[in-house]
Amino acid sequence: xxxxxVRPFVLATLVGVVAAPFFAPSLQARALLRPGLTDGDIKAxxxxxxxxxxxxxxxxxxxxWRCETEKKARFIVIQYRKKDEKEASSLxxxxxxxxxxxxxxxLLNVWNSQVRMTKTYLDDEKDPVLAExxxxxxxxxxxxxxxxxxxxxxxxxxxxxxxxxxxxxxxxTEALDAVYAR
Length: 182
Known about the structure:
Structural class: alpha+beta
Oligomer: single chain
Shape: globular
């Protein structure tokens, strides 16, 4: 009778020891998720990145922010969360321009291939948009600040070379190299 108890116990222990390494990565990934950041944390990160911030509410009552850099580049930060939660699940940072003529697709493609975290596209009216999404469960306050700073640094380059300038791929690459060399 005792053997009937011991065998399943030993078998279960062996399976647990053998299977543990396969489950460890998902457990480690879950441990890396951070609690979300509050509206105050997000605004503080923007201000620490050197942005002038104006807070507003959207039609659903969620906070959004209008940001301006020292170089007068402007963009908005849109918060996504459930209405009854205090912490944002994600943020979308968006700069958009109203233009007469759409910029060249080749420049937008050069941008998308060289700048990893942002994406650029033409909206319904063929106006250029520069956007980035932040998943809040994986970002610390310092990482959020650095991300806002980087976005604020590339908006003027995008505006100068793509929106206003009709620049070349070489000019865009040179301007981006200057931003990332800092």
